[in-house]
Amino acid sequence: xxxxxxxxxxxxxxxxxxxxxxxxxxxxxxxxxxxxxxxxxxxxxxxxxxxxxxxxxxxxxxxxxxxxxxxxxxxxxxxxxxxxxxxxxxxxxxxxxxxxxxxxxx
Length: 106
Prior knowledge:
Helix content: 40-55%
Number of domains: 1
Shape: elongated
Structural class: alpha+beta
Largest sheet: 5 strands, antiparallel
Distance between the termini: 54 Å
Order of helices and strands: HEHEEEE
Radius of gyration: 21 Å
Strand order of the largest sheet: 1-5-4-3-2
Oligomer: single chain
Number of helices: 2
Number of strands: 5
């Protein structure tokens, strides 16, 4: 029934085909987004005043994954902040980190 050149018997078949086709990349993106959201939640929880200093061990204890961040911010002084959305951190000496919240009022 329907067009003579249709590829799928119905919407269910079409959806199943496309879901299977995209499942590998979808799972990868979903897993990365989950890590980024967890990192953001940890930074938000440990930084209630929007600026604080914390030791690396405290971040690791909460499950923070330093391999994942959304963007970098390089300052004029040459410091590099790593951000998970609006929450960021600056590596300091002796495994200490300076946590910040970026002000997004444009």
